[in-house]
Specification:
This protein is an alpha+beta fold. It is built from 4 helices and 6 strands, in the order ααβαββαβββ.
Amino acid sequence: MNKILPAGAILLALINASVPASAAAPKHATRYQQAPVQQQWFGSGAPIAGVDADSPAAKAGLRPGDVIVGINGRPINNQSDVDPFLAGSGGHPLALDVNRGGTLVRLRATPQQGKLGYSYWTLCFFCSTDDPGPPPPPIPDPPIPTPPVIIPPPITN
């Protein structure tokens, strides 16, 4: 240990003496530049429940259980994030980033008429299965019966 420390100090002195400070780093590297904050690449995703046979989604390789986490490099958090991409594709292919069992897979699919041909789940936070739905139409009150007219018999004297 006593020999290592002096040897390291001598080596450091030799390195510093042989390389001038101006040549150690280029001029543009002397300033500190903060790296930009990188945006989130993938969202929480839109899960796929089913894929229609012979649909663009099936041809692209989309499977039930896949989760679409990005389209064309943009993060996807739910199905409402997917719909604008499908509607605005204009028949051009989309790059789908799919989470398949923990593995990221990139698929290429071309929507037809704004659809890929898959089904998805929706979560309803304000719905319940015992919801009665709209109220039934009002039942009109029954008509009030008119009392019978009783004609008294004629009086005879």
